[in-house]
Amino acid sequence: MRSVGFIALICASFTGPSLAQTAAPSSAAPKSPSEWSPSPHGPDDRLGALNYVRPEKTARAAKLVTEGISYSLGAPVGPETPAYGPRSYSVTVLQLSDGTGTPIGANQATGNDDLIHTWLGIGSQLDGLGHMGTEHTYYNGVKASDFVATDGLKQFSIHTLPPIATRGVLLDMTKVYDSNPVPDGTAFNKDAIKAAAKAADITLEAGDIVLFHTGKMAALAETQDFSPTAPGLGLEGARYLAELGIAAIGTDTWAVEAIPFESPEHVFPVHPVLLAEYGVYILENMVTEPLARDDVTEFFFVLGMPRLKGTVQAMVNPIALK
């Protein structure tokens, strides 16, 4: 597996030639926890923006399925999958019974089992609300000391999340920037997002899942190298979408946000804004190329959560139906 550590990432992000990048408006600067808690969903809320995915929203979104065509938005994961270091993946196949594969029963049954050693933040993944915060404060003002433990999260665990069934929207940023892939470091802020929605003839609504297509994943398809830089969401764009009530935001990149970051003083600034300030979930490494190729701009998005207790993140394979 090709990976790069945190220090190497930061060094790579802020050295070398200037990249196409949109400066973050001053109004988009990160805020302190006292400015964004408690949540408008109530002081005890732990679901965040998934509260906007209501039954009536799901029922409307289901009507988008008119052709019965499905798209897998998750990518296969293996030992060779590029990952943010030191994350890694390995699988061991074991034979059942006594470990040597001895047949069991009069019918001489045999079989295999598997054992996986992995980080969950590899490949196509969902970041839960316990993933990143500010000053050890997470969504709705919950302190790390109140829920983080080495044997699993006591709040915000992925297994507590309901299934997501709602409208998905694809915004093709390669058309907005007339570049495929979009140049690394390009930050998608309000004007660019509105332009992409207009080009798709889409009005963004509360409870939507918004996916950005940048062409980055497809451009890297022939290599197993981890790219430390990428186009992605900017701070102003993150707040714009969150204020609309978007439930989750994803891209075909590993970080969702633009790297190099809009300000060299901030590290992964978009993550805590979405997760902690607004309770908006993050979908990384989404396979958007087939949707873009087929000009699919809206679809029925379906995702059932792995029921692994105490987990921060999850490998996922959402389905887009049209």
Summary?
By secondary structure, this protein is α/β, with parallel strands linked by helices.
How would you describe the overall organization of this protein?
The protein is an alpha/beta fold. Helices cover 18% and strands 20% of the residues. It has a single domain, classed as 3-Layer(bba) Sandwich (Glucose Oxidase, domain 1). The protein is built from eight helices and 17 strands. A nine-stranded mixed beta sheet has the order 2-17-15-9-11-13-14-6-16. Strand 7 and strand 8 form a beta hairpin. It is globular and about 70 Å long. Residues 10-22 have low confidence and may be disordered.
Quickly list its features.
single chain, 322 residues, alpha/beta, Glucose Oxidase, domain 1, nine-stranded mixed β-sheet, two-stranded parallel sheet, 8 helices
Report strand %.
Answer: 15-25%
Would you tell me the structural class of the helices and strands? Answer: alpha/beta
Strand order of the largest sheet: 2-17-15-9-11-13-14-6-16
Overall mean confidence score, pLDDT: 91
Given the C-alpha coordinates, what overall shape results? Answer: globular
Oligomeric form: single chain
Low-confidence parts: 10-22
Indicate the topology.
Elements: E1 3-4, H1 6-13, H2 55-62, E2 70-72, E3 83-84, E4 89-95, E5 112-118, E6 125-127, E7 137-138, E8 142-143, E9 164-172, H3 173-176, E10 187-188, H4 190-199, E11 209-213, H5 216-219, E12 232-233, H6 235-244, E13 248-251, H7 270-278, E14 281-284, H8 289-293, E15 298-303, E16 313-315, E17 319-321
Parallel strand pairs: 1-3, 9-11, 10-12, 11-13, 13-14
Antiparallel strand pairs: 2-17, 4-5, 6-14, 6-16, 7-8, 9-15, 15-17
Helix pairs in contact: 4-6, 6-7
